Amino acid sequence: MSSIQYVMTSRGNRVLSYNGHKFHVNTRRGYKTYWRCAGRVAKGCTMSITTIEDNVVKVNNEHNHE
Question: Phi/psi of residue 31, each to 5°?
Answer without folding.
Answer: -85, -10
